Structures are given as structure tokens and as C-alpha cells.
Amino acid sequence: MIESSDVELEDERVKLVTELARVKQSTSAELLFRNAPGTTGFHEATHTASIVLDLLDQHLLHHPAIAGNAEWFRYASRASEALFNLYQSMGAAQVEHHAEDGLRPEDLNASNDD
Q1: What is the dihedral of CA 10, 13, 18, 19, to 10 degrees?
Q2: pLDDT value at residue 97
Q3: How far is CA 16 from CA 2, 28, 81, in A?
Q4: What pLDDT, on the 0 to 100 scale, is given for residue 96?
Q5: What is the pLDDT of residue 101?
Q6: Cβ atoms 47, 95 nearer than 8 A
Q7: Cα angle vertex 105, ends 50, 47, to 5°?
Q8: Which residues does 58 contact at the CB level (< 8 Å), separation at least 6?
Q9: For the chain, what is the HEC assignment?
Q10: Mean per-residue pLDDT, 19-48
């Protein structure tokens, strides 16, 4: 089983941001600014987290092969929980950003239910 330490993950994150900035011919600071809460890039990432969560829940977590095996079901459930927590955390950052604009959470219409 693979389980990275927080230090390993942070090292990987910093390397990834540097590489993404290089590919986009940008600095890391510019890249992060263009993808901060309130930007189109941030909305895209939040939407993608929602889509992947739905896919994982509908097509993996609820698959008989996964549901039939306790270990696999735990892995899939933990992945689902992690994606849900990611989506909620990103949503909270978006709400916090828009609070400065005077918008209420219900004004943001961040749901995929439309």
C-alpha cells in the first residue's frame, strides 16, 4: 500500500507547481494568482472535483466488484471522502472570497443539480 508522508506530499506539490508554471510559461506566483478562488481556473478545478466525485461514487463505489470486497470498498470510500472534503474545502474558499463581494452562498449557484 502506498501512503506518502506530509513532507513527501509537500515536496511533490512544490515541484508540481514549479513544473506547471514552466509549462504555462509563467511564474509560480502568477500561476497561483490566476487560479485562486474567484477565478475561472479555480471554478474549473472545483467543478472537476465534483465530476470526479460523482464518477467515483456512481461507477466505482457502487460497483458490485468493489461493494463485494471489504478492503476495496474501504479504499473507494476513503477516496470518495477525500474528494468530498476537497470539494467542500474549495467551496468554502470560494464562499469566503465572494463574501468580500457581498454575495451570499446561495447566490453563487455552485450546484451541479441544474
Answers
A1: 140
A2: 85
A3: 19, 10, 24
A4: 86
A5: 66
A6: no
A7: 15
A8: none
A9: CCCCCHHHHHHHHHHHHHHHHHHCCCCHHHHHHHCCCCCHHHHHHHHHHHHHHHHHHHHHHCCHHHHCCHHHHHHHHHHHHHHHHHHHHHHHHHHHHHHCCCCCHHHHCCCCCC
A10: 96
Judge whether residue 57 has pLDDT over 80: yes
User: CB–CB of 73/36 below 8 Å?
Assistant: no
Q: What is the Rg, in whole angstroms, of the alpha carbon atoms belonging to the chain?
A: 17
How far, CA to CA in Å, does 98 sit from each of 92, 94, 101?
Answer: 10, 6, 5
At residue 81's C-alpha, the angle toward residues 67 and 64, to 5°, is 10
Confidence class of residue 103 from pLDDT cuts 50, 70 and 90? low
